[in-house]
UniProtKB/TrEMBL annotation:
It comes from Microthyrium microscopicum. GO terms for biological process: signal peptide processing. The keyword Transmembrane helix applies. Keywords: Endoplasmic reticulum, Hydrolase, Membrane, Protease, Signal-anchor, Transmembrane, Transmembrane helix. Belongs to the peptidase S26B family. This is Signal peptidase complex catalytic subunit SEC11. It is a single-pass type II membrane protein. The chain crosses the membrane at residues 12-31. GO terms for cellular component: signal peptidase complex. SUPFAM superfamilies: LexA/Signal peptidase. Component of the signal peptidase complex (SPC) composed of a catalytic subunit SEC11 and three accessory subunits SPC1, SPC2 and SPC3. The complex induces a local thinning of the ER membrane which is used to measure the length of the signal peptide (SP) h-region of protein substrates. This ensures the selectivity of the complex towards h-regions shorter than 18-20 amino acids. SPC associates with the translocon complex.
Length: 171
């Protein structure tokens, strides 16, 4: 017996933990398909969108058939950079030509985002660069994610505590 638990009970606890993790993953993937976005939920990482969004706000994205217009807040990914950016559309360039081209800017920034785009890029392509339009948010909830990314040791502690809870939990 391991710590008062039979090997069978220990295996059940591990399988329960695996079930919870796989369920969370399936929910994420399902939400990604429904929203037509590779990342349907993102966390604001900087103050560039203050006062509209604060650092740590959790944003919900939608990309399925959603028209993008001046004033909308979008999340986009720049070629060659890992972290997506949350900024407002300040201008569109279409002239009847598809795909829609966008110019963005953070509400708290002095200049537009052309310096943030990939080298040689002067606008965003709505179909390839934009992950989704922001359709809702929950203030401050994502701050845990920021803490975990800024302090990697916290991830180890959290995973250790989760594992310990699985082992110590009794049915």
């Amino acid at each position: 017996m391991l710590g008062g638990m039979s090997p069978r009970s220990y295996a059940v606890q591990i399988l329960n933990f695996a079930f919870i993790m796989s369920t969370a993953f399936m929910m994420w993937k399902g939400l990604s398909i429904i929203a037509d976005s590779p990342s349907p939920i993102v966390v604001v990482l900087s103050g560039s969108m203050e006062p509209a969004f604060q650092r740590g706000d959790l944003l919900f994205l939608w990309n399925r058939g959603y028209p993008t217009a001046v004033g909308d807040v979008v999340v986009y990914k720049v070629k060659g950079k890992e972290i997506p950016i949350v900024h407002r559309v300040i201008r569109t360039f279409d002239g009847g030509v598809k795909p829609l081209r966008l110019l963005t800017k953070g509400d708290n920034n002095a200049a537009d985002d052309t310096e943030l785009y990939a080298p040689g890029q002067s606008y965003l392509d709505r179909t390839t660069d934009v992950i989704g339009n922001v359709i809702g948010y929950v203030p401050g909830v994502g701050y845990v994610t920021i803490m975990l990314s800024e302090h990697p040791w916290m991830k180890t502690v959290m995973l250790g505590l989760m594992g310990l809870m699985v082992v110590l939990q009794r049915e």
